[in-house]
Amino acid sequence: MEHRHRLEDRTPEPNRVWIDLAGPDEAAIARTEALTGLALPSCADLREVERSSRLRRQRDALVLSTPMVSFDGAPGLHPLGFVLARDRLVTLRFQALPPFEAVARRQAEPDGPRTSTALFGALLAELVDALADRLEAMSDALDALSGRVFDFDLGRGGAPKRRDRALRQILGEVGRSGKALSMLRAALLGLGRIVPFVAAEAEPWLGPEEHTHLEILRLDIVSLEEFETRLSETVQFLLDATLGLVNMEQNNTFRVLTVVSVIGIPPTLVASIYGMNFKTMPELDWAWGYPYGLALIALSALAPALYFRIKGWF
């Protein structure tokens, strides 16, 4: 007996245990419904967010759905659906999912999963493993990003434009990490709801090993949710730190402008004084009056500049 079929342009045979609908249209769904006697959800149904829409019993089958992240290319969320019956499993997906291919390879092995519930458990296990790998990769990426944030030297980062570009890049990476984590959280939350629901509603179909497997998956998902929470806290911490660096950079800019404006006040005052045209001004008759005025202007600018330099303002 063959156990899996990926529906494309032909109708699957009645003895298929696992029917995998990849990107199905209405015609494909209708053919599968006619074959299996199961009512399959549409893509719009799979996108429903209410718990009652994502987890429900429909006659002798369980209709389950969850958002699932993309495991290749740009990150994104796509609906993933399961229709689980005692002797049939139908999956509906709208993206390439390597865990499904991994289960298909395992199914071809002599001791691979054969029943609908065993195939369902294997799919969940592969999805959980894939999500765990994504979280581990995110953890490594955040560690590297943390080093870049806290090693960032505002005083030695090059020209202001270059420092600004570097901070923008860091801020963008922090934002993308937060977005990716939110997608992983949604997928984990969906799987975390599916596992106990199936364990309770499909109890007559499950053997002792499958019950144990589902309980292990539930505990794994809980631990991954806790790990994701810590990563989310790290992302928030890095976001706050990066915004702090941006504020410091802005403060440095305002400080430089303040120092420059203060340095410019004494020369302006001296030039204003000697710009007055009073007949009795003694310096008007000096042979060295003009060099004296220039020297006084220069000295009035250098003195506050030296003072601010000693104080470490720039």
TrEMBL record:
The protein, known as: Magnesium transport protein CorA
Organism: Methylobacterium isbiliense
Highest taxon of the lineage: Bacteria
Topology relative to the membrane: Multi-pass membrane protein
Family: Belongs to the CorA metal ion transporter (MIT) (TC 1.A.35) family.
Chain's gene name: corA_2
Membrane-spanning ranges: 256-276, 288-308
Keyword Membrane recorded: yes
Gene3D superfamilies (alphabetical): CorA soluble domain-like (3.30.460.20), Magnesium transport protein CorA, transmembrane region (1.20.58.340)
Pfam families: CorA (PF01544)
